[in-house]
Amino acid sequence: MDKNYFEIKRAGINTTFQDKGRDNLYHIGIPFSGAMDNRNFLLANKLVDNKENLPVIEFAYQGPLIKFNGDKITIAITGDVIFKLIKKDKETYGKCYETYQLEDGDEIDILSTNKSVYGYLAISGEFDLKFQWGSCSINTKANIGSNNGNKLTDGQKINICKINSNQRNKKVNYLNSKIENIRVIKGTNFDYFSEKGKKNFFGKQFIVSKLSDRMGMRLEGPKIENIVNTNIKSEGLLKGVVQVPADGNPIIMLSDHGTIGGYPKIGVVASVDYDRLVQISPGTKIKFKEINLSDAETLFKLYEMETQNLISQI
User: Fold this and answer.
1) In this structure, is residue 172 part of a structural domain?
2) Which of 88, 92, 137, 211 is the most buried (most CB within 10 A)?
3) What is the pTM of this model?
4) Alpha-carbon distance 228 to 213, whole Å?
5) How many Cα atoms are found within 13 Å in the side-chain-facing hemisphere of 259?
């Protein structure tokens, strides 16, 4: 019997293994995938003294209830998450961005994300996972990655192949900020849309649909009128592209998006806003704000510097 492992007593709604994703496979139809919120992924690994690209457990809305079996291990949870630690039948609520020690028989009950979508659980060690194309990231639409490309399930056992010997208590002060105005660069098909459609896109509110997932965020609101052609020859897509199908409702491509598409593209979400974009829960109202490429690049560099500053504080 394996010495150290987690037992999944409740898998949660959308629980997968994720790392930083896969590079340079668009030409064979494989997207990056990887953690949706990269900053929270990096902070989770740093808190438990891991290398920054080690796999973590990503969960959405309701997370897993898991029981630990084995030697002492350190865990950290990042995001805006409500969770409990259960030790010898004593329950205490935990805090995000702090480490906790688990001993044999202890449980973690991740109750929910708090007015957000994704959270992350990292351990001070390594899960025993199979990698595909250099990554363990699970894409359930294509059945790619560890766990045979599937979500975690009730009753499943997750083996731990290594536990770090250095397990120190750590924490970082960080507050997940909300975002309503999503900054966008004009897309390659911007001129396919009427002046009214463009004004609607940059001037009106949209509501995040319940149909959103790791592949794309569907929006509902004022229609974006296309005056040229509602379908184009399929061409390459990238994360953050905003496509507009014939019904006029925008779709933002997210981490598991298809690599080509035939809907006109009105814009691309600036990378600086992506981590906070994916944390917007269904039913939330958002607006788009136009920025130019130069400003988008500068803002992203500042965001990356801020992330590294947070990591250096741990």
Assistant:
1) no
2) 137
3) 0.96
4) 29
5) 13
pLDDT digits over 241-295, tens only?
A: 999 999 999 999 999 999 999 999 999 999 999 999 999 999 999 999 999 999 9
Domain-located, residue 21? yes
Number of compact structural domains in the chain: 2
Report the DSSP beta bridge partners of residue 93: 84
What pLDDT, in 10s, does the model give residues 190-243?
Answer: 999 999 999 999 999 999 999 999 999 999 999 999 999 999 999 999 999 999
CA distances from 247 to 72, 220, 225, 251 (A): 54, 10, 9, 11
Residue 142 and residue 158: Cα distance in Å, rounded? 22
Q: Enter the tokens of residue 259.
A: 């690599």
> What local confidence, expressed as pLDDT, does residue 89 receive?
83
**pLDDT tens digits for 60-114?**
999 999 999 998 999 999 999 999 999 988 999 999 999 999 999 999 999 999 8
- The CB density around residue 26, as the number of other CB atoms within 10 Å, is 15
DSSP assignments along 190-252, one per residue:
GGGB-HHHHHHHHHS-EEE-TT--SSEEEEESS---BSS-S----EE--TTEEE--TT---EE
Torsions phi, psi of 60, nearest 5? -130, 135
Q: How far apart are CA 41 and CA 97, in angstroms?
A: 11
38 burial type by CB count under 10 A (0-12 exposed, 13-18 middle, 19+ buried)? buried
CA distance 54 to 264: 36
- Mean pLDDT, the chain, integer: 96
